[in-house]
Amino acid sequence: MGIVSAIGFDVEETLQSLRAGKTGIDALRYLQTDHHEFPVGEVQMSTDEMAKRLGIPDGTPRTRTAMMGIMALGQALQQANLHKDDMAKAAFVSGTTVGGMDMSEQFYMDFLTNDLHNDYISQHDCGACTESIADYFGPFASVSTLSTACSSAANAIINGANAIREGSCEIAVVGGSECITKFHLNGFNSLMILDHEQCRPFDETRAGLNLGEGAAFLVIETADSARRRGVTPIAVLEGYGNACDAFHQTASSPDGEGSYRAMREALADAGLQPQDIDYINAHGTGTPNNDTSESQAMMRLFGETIPPVSSTKSFTGHTTSASGSIEAVICILALQHQFLPLNLGWKHQMPDGITPVTDQHPVRPLQHVLCNSFGFGGNDSSLVIGKEPSKALLPLGEGREGAAGEGAFILAATQISIQEGLSEAWMQSPIQYDEPYVRSLDVDYKQWLSVGESRRMGKLLKRALVTSLAAMRQSGVEHPDAIITGTGLGCIENTEILLTHLCEEGEENCKPTPFMQSTHNTISSLVSIHTHTHGYNATYAHKEASFDCALEDAWRQMKLGRIHTALVGGQDEMTPKYFGLLCKTGYLGQPSQIAGEAAVSVMLSAKPRNELDNVLCRMTYFKRLYRPTPEELQQTAAAIGCFDAVVTSVSQLSTFNSQLSTLQEAATLFPDTPLLQYKNIFGESYTAYGLGIYATAHVLHCQQLPPAMLIPGFVTPAALHRILVLNQIGGKDYTFTVLES
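Above: the chain's sequence. Below: its structure in token form.
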């Protein structure tokens, strides 16, 4: 494990601060803001000092989130004795929400008006931050980014553990990184939940949270792999749970339904009873709402015998997306050194609330601890970490009936895009565009949403919700076991509104709505809230692989039998301003290329519920690779076998050389196989791959190939029974999905 936070630059310093009861919350020092009235938990080192410590040359674009992540990851890799050969077979999963916002908020007006800081445009999104951390040390087998607000790092741990259980890898490096920015300092201030003093979780006088920053990563692996490598585990990830409160975009429900479900699922996964838990590291933000809700959830689960509970955010501040992994490291330290982390600042008992830890000495030896992380939109996750394996723990991959034998069935696939929405009219007569930038064609939202609902939502939220509702209606699945969204940028229009306000009007009078709707997981949580769906909920924000990551999560959990139905979405918008910025980076603006917007929802099922289900097709193969060697690409191509066509990710053909090379690579990997296209119909966007899956599913179902999908110079498929949908991203990210009629 590796950790960087306000209470230390490494594990040893963190332990010393915890044992000494030394908080890291203090006055602002590094963030350039007008709001010095709010104490925070800053890492006591400037971004430039971090870069110098890491040997990163001057002039190299770097963000604070990435620098802290590199520092923490280096510690974890060193302790785990993990070398490049090991990393090349390992998954890397990180959680973040702000990504490179610390630099974007400094240079946003430069982005729009000049070319002084264009290098930082491509560092803005969450996926770029994750790749900066991963690439500093060498290639991993796959790289993913979770963005579920304050539960991001916890969900990264869950994702990595599922990858190991499913057999995709034996080692996963998991965690998260997040820096304090003006953007989210002012956003939280607009919600009026920041305390002007040191936070006091679970205290009757609590008045809000203190923001913090930091990073932490864990190396998790199978017991067999650890034995082969000759390394000794420091703890055991025994179980985990993820559930949605489905109550409100920022507030928790009074009875803590989501947190109760997440904790209950984590215990069941670990094969433990409530009385087996020896300590709970609570989410415990210090806000009146969270601490009441979490207390009620713990009382529901544990009754009158609640284990010792504390929130360590009074040490580190609320490190938002990184909090799940930072607090997991603290839990491991508590297990290793047999102490209870204090709940600093607590003095006054909450009515009907829990009494937190004020004495470090445990009443009994710590064997199993519970670590809670709850995010905006009711995204609630819990981890059970043990000193030694529980005897009741199910062997990996056993005890559940998965869908590995037949694959996953696509029951419905819907879209709102630059073609006619909620329709397959594009198959017969697609709308043709000559201009390089096109917005989505909206549908009649009144058929799906009330006037009040529609007025409160931005355009992307309406598109995402309506395509989701349409997929649910077509499939007959009212409450899927999982709602998983991929979005490269989230509601970027709301991000721009808040950024523009900060740059042009300053830090006073920021409105809460743009901040709330700018959070990436607003989309998936909105669908859960609207449909009252409490199941697994996750959001991936990994650039053009965002939908790919979401689809991978659903596929993996179906193979494990953890879920049986999943609504997988790909949701992105393209504002005029962001189109201009992406043209500056060279990502968009090439001749013959169309920039579009994507709102696509796909309903997956492990098995058809009955013979009457209108199944579109089956998904029988899925694999993602990151920076693969030519040999790895050839091996993957050979493993897939024969099929009738390849649907490529080429976005235009006539003059852009990199797109021609994309076709050449596909033709080399799959010789004598017809190649098809779809971005000429739907445009380029960060989650366009979802539209590729959507289009291919309907082609297989209708057994009809739209002429627009043909690529000039390539042969027409002789049959339409088994099609590979291939995503190639910048020569480094590859996704292989096979769909069959």
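The radius of gyration is 24 Å.
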